[in-house]
Specification:
With 113 residues, this protein is mainly α. Helices cover 64% and strands 0% of the residues. The chain is built from four helices and no strands. Helix 1 (21-40) runs antiparallel to helix 2 and helix 2 (48-69) runs antiparallel to helix 3.
Length: 113
């Protein structure tokens, strides 16, 4: 019955490396929250939502750039998923922004507020 024992012929697959996507996503959101609290003291209250959305889009772009550098397919897909979800959160938050808030963020004014 030696021909039924395939343990010597077929290699048993080793365990794939563990991808910690949920923990990484939670960490990115916590860092974004801390950055938001820090930005709150720098920008006016009307410009806070556009600044947060811009921050989320920038972090999503950096995450997608890192995904392009990643060599393992499994990790690459995870990084692209993280970038896509950060972009989605940025788009959802951008719905809350009124157009005149964006104008006040980028327009230079000599008038005191």
């Amino acid at each position: 019955m030696a021909f039924l024992d395939r343990s010597q012929i077929v290699e048993t697959p080793s365990r794939p490396p563990v991808a910690r996507g949920k923990e990484l996503f939670a960490g990115i959101l916590i860092v974004a929250l801390v950055a938001t609290v820090g930005i709150r003291n720098v920008v006016p209250a009307d410009a806070l939502a556009p600044a947060i959305v811009t921050l989320l889009f920038a972090v999503a772009a950096l995450t997608a750039g890192f995904a392009l550098l990643c060599r393992h397919d499994r990790f690459r897909i995870m990084w692209f998923d993280l970038a896509g979800s950060l972009t989605f959160i940025g788009v959802v938050l951008s719905i809350l922004i009124e157009p005149d808030q964006m104008v006040r963020l980028f327009a230079l004014s000599d008038q005191p507020e």
